[in-house]
Amino acid sequence: MSRPAHLLEHDHEDLPRKQRRERARAERKALEQAAATGVARRTRMTQLGIVLAVVVVGIVVVLLASGESATIKRIAPETAAARNVTHGIGKLLAGIPQSGTALGQPTAPVTLQYYGDLECPVCRAFTIGALPSIIQKDVRGGELRVEYHSLQTATREPEVFNSQQLAALAAGKQDKMWNFIETFYHEQGEEDSGYVTESYIQGIARQVHGLNIAQWTSDRGEDALANQVQRDAQAASNAGLEGTPAFLLGRSGGTLRRFQPSSYTEPGSFEAAIDKLAKA
Amino acid sequence: MSARTLRITLTVFTLAGLGIASYLTYVHYAGIKPVCTAGGSCEKVQTSVYSELAGVPVALLGLLIYMAVFGLLLGPENESTRFAMMALTLVGFAFSAYLTYRELFSIHAICEWCASSAAILTLMAPLSVWRFLRGAPSRPVIGPGQRSVESRGQSVVLSNNL
To answer: Do A45 and B94 touch (CB under 8 A)?
Structure first.
């Protein structure tokens, strides 16, 4: 039996309404999704912003922290700190024979050649780190003789490098080179700040106890010393040394071989190698 | 770029970075000289005061970051892992930038290994950020033994053992 006419009409109206409802629902859903995507995007941007902010702060902290440890507090001469330094160096080297670039007994069976740049911070780390123990034990004990040689690395200008090294060698003519270089290393300034001026070099020399300044000034111009600097550069090149500090170690008068320590601040690897050579 | 291509690209970069960081960490602890075509530059950088942060070798820190990123790439991809990768690669990139600054302006020597790692992170960071901002892929990432079907306007991933 067919439906009454008025109910048939309702069926026709329902269909488009159903479709309208479905379409409205679909549109609402699309709008919700778009809103959700927009919210998600904004949330992610915020999260990205927070991460970036944290990273930037982190890097600033690292910069400041490493800057401080790397920034060496310049010890000015004629200050109490400088007097402490000089006193300490005096005690370290007291009674140990020096001759030119060498520190230690001429009869010592083992020789260590220490190639450094006076402005090099790692050389400074070694000089105030492992070296004092090595001097106290092996040099004082008569087993070891250390020779200081130069290799330009940290110093930017060749003229400055020459000037500071000649100043050190001139002190060596009065057998006080090691006092000079120890003082220099202890009182290094910030790398690359141009702190090594004539005035600075004079300041170091004045702290070397017993150094005849007039003699030292004259010796700085000696050709023989300038040649020494050249020879060091050549020897370093021949030995394939590129960075500082660099070490050549061996029996005195024999072949010296490249020595790579496992630490610049702990003397252990040096001691082991030196003892082995001394007993050889 | 599809989500899958992006993942593969990032994985390739991460493997390269892992290799470099592993080598540099090994070199640091073995106390040997790194292979270097630029003369003693690498050694100068590797033994500088900036090669350690609070006593931890910088190479090791890089290795840890690369390992974490690799772990994230191996696992399932979701909002959290995308966020974590973005954060890690940004940290890695920023740290590499800082170290490069130190190489150029404090040490005055470039280590080619460090430069390569920095380049890798410079590429990975923006890719990870983009991947994070994009959100969930419209086509889901299909793993092995899976296939995708459309169901009610959504992509559904089915596994073979279903």
So the answer is: no
Q: What is the mean predicted confidence (pLDDT) over A234-238?
A: 94
Burial class (CB in 10 A: 0-12, 13-18, 19+), A237: exposed
Which has more pLDDT, A40 or A10? A40
Domain contains A1 = no
> Is A28 in the same domain as A145?
no
Residues A33 and A105 both lie in one domain: no
Residue B38 contacts residue B44 (beta carbons within 8 Å): no
- The total of structural domains in chain A comes to 2
Show residues of chain A in contact with B43, CB under 8 Å.
Answer: 242-243
pLDDT digits (tens, 9 = 90+) for A79-118: 788 888 888 999 999 999 999 999 999 999 999 999 999 9
Q: What is the ipTM of this complex?
A: 0.76
Contacts of A63 in chain B (CB under 8 A): 98
H/E element, A12: helix A5-70
Q: What are phi and psi of A241, to 5 degrees?
A: -85, 130
**Residue of chain A minimizing CA distance to B132:** A44
Q: Which residues of A touch B90 (CB under 8 A)?
A: 51-52, 55
Our CA-based measurement puts residue A15 at a distance from the nearest CA of chain B, in whole angstroms, of 22
Q: Do A63 and A85 have their domain in common?
A: no
Whether A149 and A90 share a structural domain: yes
* Residue range(s) defining the domain that contains residue A39: 19-70
Separation of alpha carbons A122 and A244, rounded Å: 7
- In chain B, positions 102-121, which contact chain A (CB-CB < 8 Å)? 102, 106, 108
